[in-house]
Amino acid sequence: MYRGLQRSTTGSVAIVLLCFASLAFAGDPLPSWNDTGPKKAIIQFVEAVTKEGSRDFVPVTERIATFDNDGTLWAEQPLYTQLFFVIDRVKALAPQHPEWRTQGPFASVLKGDPRGITAGGEAGVTALLTATHSGMTTDEFSRMVSDWIATAKHPSTGQPFTAMVYQPMLELLDYLRANGFKTFIVSGGGIDFMRPWAEKVYGIPPEQVIGTSGDLKFDMKDGRLVLLKLPNIAHNDDKAGKPIGIQRHIGRRPIAAFGNSDGDLQMLQWTCYSPGLRLCVYVHHTDAEREWAYDRGSKIGALDKGLDEANLRGWTVVDMKGDWSRVFPLQ
Amino acid sequence: MYRGLQRSTTGSVAIVLLCFASLAFAGDPLPSWNDTGPKKAIIQFVEAVTKEGSRDFVPVTERIATFDNDGTLWAEQPLYTQLFFVIDRVKALAPQHPEWRTQGPFASVLKGDPRGITAGGEAGVTALLTATHSGMTTDEFSRMVSDWIATAKHPSTGQPFTAMVYQPMLELLDYLRANGFKTFIVSGGGIDFMRPWAEKVYGIPPEQVIGTSGDLKFDMKDGRLVLLKLPNIAHNDDKAGKPIGIQRHIGRRPIAAFGNSDGDLQMLQWTCYSPGLRLCVYVHHTDAEREWAYDRGSKIGALDKGLDEANLRGWTVVDMKGDWSRVFPLQ
Question: What pLDDT was estimated at residue B118?
Fold first, then answer.
């Protein structure tokens, strides 16, 4: 179905893949990208930093590429996928919480008004996240996410959420890795929500997923050692939190960064305001027919200051409508 | 000089090394280990988890090994290396702080009484760390550490601190990596103190170094974007902080863990209290002649509860005197 799902995890295969990676893309490494500016900019960048002896050469260990997730690797409309998970969890937990029938954001969810989730602002979303993302062990939460993502369907397309990933971006991830890059997710989404499926879908292992995370408690439960998920946020991986998350987890500055909203601006600045050849890319949602069209003023994934800065600094802006021949793998 | 220092970072060489890694150890992979129990236990474990089709086989992506640093990968006596760095920084900064001449831990440092550093307990150490580890950018701090470690000498041996690493552990790191393991440092030491040299000395890149870390602020300084190091601790990577740091950074449980003190006990429990074949190893400092001999009651690196639990559970305990034919690379 997807490239990501076909990836083998056995050692010998991995080594063979790595050794022949440079041969694997003898054809077009980015077949779902039209031959327009962004594709040319990406290939030109990769060729420059991987050419030994060239002025722009970057050693393998420093080839760090960071990707936002929501709206950059997969769709974020009409709501972030993680909020659909929250909705389903609230419904599942409701019988144990009769008080939710009248409590702001919980009542909206139970009445089938998903937009009510965000109506209560940050406090409402926090209450929902606390109720659904803490009070269990990391293993229990991981299983909940895995079970949910295996069966839940996107409300507009009826497809699994993992089919709502962008085919051109999957190709880009593969292309970068084939050229020695280490690819990381740097998302405002929950780190524990992304890790259970990111490896299968994107080929990105848990240790390369950076996201918003809560405090943990090392404890005993039913005679077993566990890590309990606590309600308070330890790191908010959005806006200025993105370069901070990058420093904490990676400890070096990326040489390429990919985002789609103002929440990614600081990550792109941290990447491109530094000496040497750098690549900063904004995915611009311009395709109302195959996906969604939104930017300035959108309630989710607003791209406003970021678009101005991209234009000012000559960063690469991907026009989804004009630059991608295909959006989703099943399209 | 060391294996680590000879490692090339260019892409093609790295790939060639990886492809031929399994051939590179056709001889004895652990020449500085005597043919005693620990060496046998390590090799038996590695052979079992890497043998495809065997009951204990572990896919490459899950071969995570975590190492404490102080006392496990390099010497920690008569004081943690990071405290020698603190001493030298306090001396360097003293002219700008005349008040330090009479202030508890600062006065001890300036009077040449290194043991006075720990005499004031945690509050004194925190004051020293705050004064020397915050108020600058991450890049500035990284340069300070790199400059210091290139020239500072261990007070007992007169050798660079990076020569005070354990040769058998360097061989072990290489052996595990050659068998598809990803090796991580999980240390109570400062993450920003270890990252500048861990790749050169241990072959462990910054993104695989986990340690105690402070809060950061994304800011402008002299017209450039920077991350400022703030005085407060964001994560204390010791004791129960180790499994928490592992979950945050790696997101999976290690299958092998290596430590030397009670501060590592929770990391070893988190690794070995789980189903499947696991390897938990304590390095026991028993060699007063070639290194130092200490365990229960030591002010630095005490091994007390950990030793009891290792004996109780049959974990591997390395007797440095009897199990290692060589301790330091230059010995």
Answer: 74
Cis omega before residue B78 (within 30°)? yes
Q: For residues A300 and A114, give the distance between their C-alpha atoms in angstroms, rounded to a whole number.
A: 13
pLDDT range class, residue A26, cuts 50, 70, 90: low
Strand partners, B217: B228
Nearest by Cα to B270 from B85, B60, B68: B68
Of B60, B195, B199, the CB nearest to A9: B60
Beta bridge partners of A282: A259, A317
pTM, two decimals, is: 0.92
Q: Output the six-digit token pair for A96.
A: 């144990």
How far is B221 from B215, CA to CA, in rounded Å?
17
How close A18 comes to chain B (CA, Å)?
Answer: 8
**Looking at residues B191-212, what average pLDDT do you find?**
98
CB contact under 8 A, B273 and A180: no
Position B121 scores a pLDDT of 80
pLDDT at B331: 78
> Residues with Cβ < 8 Å from A322, sequence gap 6 or more?
A34, A36, A286
How far apart are alpha carbons A101 and A78 in whole angstroms?
24
Looking up tokens 């080839």 gives A63
Instruction: Break chain A down into helix, strand, coil percent, rounded to 5.
Output: 45, 20, 35
Structure tokens at A303: 């791209």
**How far is it, in rounded angstroms, from Cα B79 to Cα B155?**
10
ipTM: 0.91
Q: Minimal Cα distance from B51: which residue of A?
A: A11
CA distance A80 to A82: 5
DSSP bridge pairs for B182:
B64
List, for residues A136-173, the tens digit of each pLDDT value: 999 999 999 999 999 999 999 999 999 999 999 999 99
* β-pair partners for B226: B219
Cβ of A244 within 8 Å of Cβ of B15? The answer is no
Q: Which residue of A has its CA nearest to B216?
A: A244
Contacts of B205 in chain A (CB under 8 A): 61
The whole-angstrom separation of Cα B176 and Cα B43 is: 10
**pLDDT for B15 beyond 80:** no
Q: Where are the alpha helices (DSSP H) in chain B?
A: 11-19, 21-24, 37-50, 81-93, 104-110, 116-119, 121-133, 138-151, 167-178, 191-202, 241-249, 265-272, 305-313, 320-323
